[in-house]
Predict the structure.
Amino acid sequence: MTRSHTTVVTEQFGPRAKAYVESAVHAHGDDLDALETIIRAKSPAHALDLGAGGGHVSYLMARHAKAVTASDLSPDMTAAIRAAAHERDLTNIETLEAPAEQLPIADATFDFLACRYSAHHWRDFAAGLREARRVLKPGATAIFIDAVAPGAAMLDTHLQAIELLRDTSHARNYTAGEWLGTLGRSGFALGACRTWRLRMDFTNWTARMRTPVTNARAIRALQTAASEETRSHFAIEADGSFLLDILMVETVAE
């Protein structure tokens, strides 16, 4: 039986919606603090959370925007967001089920957009960014946050391999250069860039996606066999925990 990438993503994340809503890694972070500073200053009328996942960006934006649309491919994710928003008494969040590459939204609808830890699952990275630009008003701010691959091929290959073993819906962690170049070609003027390193606890990282035991063992085998340069860059620990590079880019729709 063949399955589209959309189906793979939906099947991967649907059963794990509650885990992502409750995930400490996704619910907190320096990037969210930085994002809140920006959106507080902008106070948008209508903000889009593109690839909302567990909805943590939506909950944050709802405190400062008049209205928020949380868009995600998975109906289970959007249902979990609606439930969490109700529990938090956030009445200005609406949800939308749609792929990032094809949003059923009119041009120039939003005056703010945030996209966090979503793009590495998209079937077509460039198309998703073009669509993000299409639904934004000219001059609107857009913030993109994601894990990024190191520029060195050896390190890049290691990261993509363990990500795919952990989660079969993984498409690619793009390099910072790929992010900046594609954003520019998609109609965004580049602003401030910030980077972080985020520790991924191996047990939690694999449990969140219910990674099969055989795949988790394969990841550990790759980590054990990795070169000293690779082990050093990712700061691989004895239990498999490691550091992941995070990029945040502030842009303006041209």
Observations:
- Residues 121 and 171 are 5 Å apart (CA to CA).
- The domain at 5-149+171-199+245-253 is CATH 3.40.50.150 (Rossmann fold).
